[in-house]
Design a protein that fits this description.
The structure is a single chain. The chain is α+β, with helices and mostly antiparallel strands. The chain has one domain. It is globular and about 45 Å long. Bound molecules: iron/sulfur cluster (2 copies). The site of one iron/sulfur cluster has 8 residues, from loops.
């Protein structure tokens, strides 16, 4: 049963909601907004709590204690979170799209996502090691597939 096709986002159980997250880690990258154009830029500087190998938050249950500015994605705020990557499962479903072919719920594991380059695996540094954040602007988080 593809529950995400049968229910609206607001109707999902907590377990279903959490399972929709692909674990790409792209939302955990620092982002910059141009003051004049308001254009959004992704960087390869990851939150200090992100495990840069498996792309998971190392303190997910207590993350707001460690990183108060971390954002909880919900059915209520998903439309306002315009900074989420185009590939984000929540963003895609909220826009009436389906999950991508590489999504863990489709393939049964994270492997296809990592292999397709749709996660941050192997491409990021810890924010604590960054001197000039503008030197870390990257385009690959903008990539989306099917
Ligand atoms: S971008 Fe979306 S799908 Fe990917 S880890 Fe963040 S919340 Fe989950
Ligand atoms: S606290 Fe965890 S979920 Fe929040 S941005 Fe950092 S790594 Fe991501």
């Amino acid at each position: 049963m593809s529950f995400w096709k049968e229910k609206k986002l607001a109707e999902l159980t907590d377990e279903q909601w959490e399972s929709l997250c692909d674990g790409c880690g792209k939302c955990c990258l620092n982002k910059l907004i141009d003051d004049e154009t308001e254009e959004l830029y992704y960087t390869n500087a990851a939150c200090q709590l992100l495990d840069r190998q498996n792309c998971q938050c190392t303190h997910y249950g207590t993350r707001f204690i460690h990183v108060p500015q971390c954002t909880k994605v919900t059915a209520d705020n998903i439309s306002e979170l315009t900074w989420l990557p185009e590939s984000c499962a929540y963003k895609r479903l909220n826009e009436g799209r389906d999950l991508p072919s590489w999504h863990p719920l489709i393939t049964g594991s994270d492997d296809a996502m990592h292999a397709a380059g749709m996660s941050v695996q192997g491409k990021v540094v810890c924010e604590s090691s960054v001197r000039d954040i503008e030197d870390h602007i990257v385009l690959w988080p903008l990539k989306d597939m099917d």
